[in-house]
Amino acid sequence: MILGDGWKTGSVKIRLPRAGVKQREEDAPEFTVDGILYRDLVEVITKELQDPDSFERIHLKPFEEWWKPSESDDPVRVYSDVYTSDTMLEAGVCFLAAQFILAAFIWMFSNRKPGTKISNFPGGARALVTAAFLLVGTEVLALGFFGSKAWATIYFTPPAADALPVQVQAGQFAFYFRYPGPDGTFGPIHPDKINEASQNFYGLDVDTDAASKDDIVTAEMGIPVNKEIRLLMHAKDVGHSFYVRELRIQQDFVPGLDLQLHFTATKVGRYEIVCTQLCGLGHYNMRAYLEVKSQEDFDQWLKQQSQ
Fold it and tell me: Are 148 and 169 in the same domain?
């Protein structure tokens, strides 16, 4: 049966071996599932590529992305992925130019007449290949050199000594944040004591661990403006991500690794934290909020959270 817009209905046959019975797959009983809706993959791809807006929507060509945080702010260049980088723009132009040159050579030399003299590159191809190798090698080394400096500024530069430590735990499907109390020290985590029913998200032993007694755990992240934050990140289960669009912060959580990230928010406001790694069925709803406050408001907020 054929429905509208290319959709079709059909059936699928599945072999279901009996439990506890050894048999070949082809000898297993066959179960038929009727009413399956499907579309031909070629038709789906063809229809998408025929849409004039698809090149912008699914990033088939490089582009520049600009964003205005507010009406009073100047536009800011956004580098969300490789397609919005200058390198991709240049590579796109070079790739198209190379294809046109290749097509021109094919057209010029594919119909050579009999007896036409074949021209050789002076000195053979060795010098040309060597020059190309040196050119590409130099470019790769230059990109690696400048890229490593940019990477080091984010990950290898230590935070300031007075940076505010905040621990963030990601787990299906929520973020939880922990602040040290007046003693300035985080209490140890006991995985066996983690219990979401009693809201002991970090597995703290407040009865015997003195450093855990004044730790503050919240479901929303609050930080003071113009104060460097030292973010201590760990995942409770699978891979997650910490992404705040307005602050241009994105860092993945890796199970089994404790990661750090430091940043400074320069504008008071409330911003959404989202997980950008597919982490399960509830991934779509895994979000929290980061509120940047004045120092006075932050101190008051942290005092309220500790009560």
Answer: no
Segments forming the whole domain that contains residue 88: 63-109
Provide the pLDDT for residue 82.
Answer: 65
More confident residue, 86 or 167: 167
Instruction: Retrieve residue 97's tokens.
Output: 């130019």
- Band (87; pLDDT cuts 50, 70, 90): confident
How many domains does one find in the chain?
4
- Going by C-alpha positions, the residue among 269, 273, 268, 265 that lies closest to residue 289 is 273
Q: Write the CB contacts of 53 (distance below 8 Å, at least 6 apart in sequence).
A: none
Give the mean model confidence (pLDDT) for residues 46-67. 72
Do 172 and 238 belong to one domain? yes
Q: Strands, E, within the chain: which ranges? A: 8-15, 30-38, 65-67, 76-78, 164-171, 174-179, 216-218, 221-224, 228-235, 240-244, 249-253, 259-264, 269-274, 287-293
Q: 181-228 pLDDT, tens per residue?
A: 888 889 888 888 888 888 888 888 888 888 888 888 999 999 999 999
Length of the chain: 307
**Could you tell me if residue 259 is inside a domain?**
yes
Give the Cα separation of 40 and 275 in Å (integer): 32
Is residue 79 situated within a structural domain? Answer: yes
Residue 163: the pLDDT is 93
Any domain includes 55: no
Residues 133 and 188 reside in one and the same domain? no
Confidence of residue 62 (pLDDT cuts 50, 70, 90): low
Cβ atoms of 8 and 1 within 8 Å: the answer is yes
Say which residue the tokens 């990661």 belong to.
259
Contact between 59 and 81 (Cβ < 8 Å)? yes
User: Do 146 and 242 lie in a common domain?
Assistant: no
| Same domain? 227 vs 134 | no
The answer to the question of residue 38 being in a domain is yes
DSSP 8-state assignment for residue 180: -
pLDDT of residue 17: 76
Provide the mean pLDDT of the chain.
84
